[in-house]
Amino acid sequence: MKKDTQASSETFLSRAESLTASDFAALGRVPPELEWFANLQNAQTRRAYRNDVKDFTAFAGLHQPEDFRTVTRAHLIAWRKHLEGRRLSQASIRRKLAALSSLFAYLCEKNALAHNPVDGVRRPRAHHTEGLTPALSDAQARALLAAPPEQTLKGVRDRAILATLLYHGLRRTELCQLKVQDVQQREGILHLRVDGKGGKIRFLPVAPLAARLIEAYLAQAGHGEDRAGPLFRPVRNHATGTLNKPLHPTSIYHEIVRYSKTK
After folding, report:
1. Is residue 56 part of a domain?
2. Which pLDDT band holds residue 214 (cuts at 50, 70, 90)?
């Protein structure tokens, strides 16, 4: 990847002051590949994903951000075999593929790609209870996740909740018990720490889309630093005004699962 282009683009994306006319024009030319990286707010994720993407670009011989749009599933399969030949751990290989999947998913959202080339590439199982496959079809899942309005805090929260339910198979009670600190890094991979039936704790790798939606929700809700507090909270409370409390499992059904009836 050309260092001068990447460095100048990342500098523009990180600026907080007012834009000059030349800055405005330059930002219009920033490729979505660099937008994706700039949107990674977690420092550990940024560091791990930066190394993983560099690893792939070196293997595939990519020289500039736009080259990612020429990558096919065959390239990813060849890279996975290369990683296996280096005797990397299953968790490391899975994280590297997850990093590329997150990047390509973002490119699909920005219409830079028609499909995610990581889809269909077998990934090592990091945990036997990870359960990342949605019960719905891809089209049904996309329609359901798009149902809540993205212009309101409730809509942003509900999209994050639906993604967490769809991709991780949590019970309503398990979802309501999640705390902010239960979204945590394990061996460079973002996981959910789930307190299940009988006090059994399990760790589930977070699906890339769910991770982005949870991050967007925490940024808008503003309680990301309240590590011991509930992850998903009410957006209003007419009775007491208290919002620092977990949602009730019944509300998950009546207020959120009802979106499935509109699609």
Report:
1. yes
2. very high
